[in-house]
Specification:
Layout lengths: L1 H10 L1 H12 L7 H12 L4 H34 L2 H24 L7 H9 L4 H26 L3 H7 L1 H24 L5
């Protein structure tokens, strides 16, 4: 695996794109895209933002593939294992709050599960454009931020991120609370009922 990542690093932004597609399509490569964006930015600071853009594009392609896998096969599974009333409640909850569970792990460069929520988004009938917007809103700051850090800190970037994992988890928890409250307040407005 290390040789594969070394090869992709030598490919620069094209390697970042390929790894992002594979990772987001369901092949488990924890933090590999993050590390490759950082490594590419550290080695070639001039192409840092191109690498970030390729990571975003690759992630979109991979996530949409996984989303449509969930759309195709996930609905049949949900219908089989849940009663219709529970399925409707699960669908309503996910339509309201579920995209938060996609956004937060897709945004933060810490190991949080995202693939199960991508599959659930497809299976529970989230609109593809809404899902695409959530992935874009999360991946753009994540990968461009990592590219900036890689260009600034070089090989020290991953160490800096590891030393700030508790802070990143705090940010994740804070985002979860704030976004959930905002959605809850939005849903409670009389005009929205």
């Amino acid at each position: 695996m290390k040789q594969f990542v070394t090869l992709l690093t030598s490919w620069g932004p094209a390697g970042v794109f390929l790894l992002a597609v594979l990772d987001s399509a369901g092949i488990p490569l924890p933090a590999a895209v993050d590390a490759l964006v950082v490594a590419t930015a550290a080695v070639h600071p001039a192409s840092a933002y191109l690498s970030a853009a390729m990571a975003v594009a690759g992630s979109l392609v991979g996530c949409m593939c996984l989303f449509y896998v969930g759309r195709k096969g996930g609905q049949a599974y949900l219908d089989r294992v849940t009663q219709s009333g529970r399925n409707a409640k699960l669908r309503a909850w996910f339509q309201t709050y579920g995209l938060i569970s996609v956004f937060i792990p897709a945004l933060l460069p810490i190991p949080l599960p995202v693939k199960i929520f991508v599959l659930s988004s497809g299976a529970l009938g989230v609109r593809p454009l809404t899902f695409l917007f959530v992935i874009l809103a999360a991946r753009i700051p994540r990968y461009f931020g990592l590219a900036w850090l890689g260009a600034q800190l070089g090989e020290n970037t991953m160490g800096w991120l590891k030393s700030h994992i508790p802070h990143l988890f705090g940010v994740a928890l804070g985002l979860l609370i704030v976004l959930s409250l905002l959605v809850w307040m939005y849903q409670r407005q009389p005009a929205r009922r």
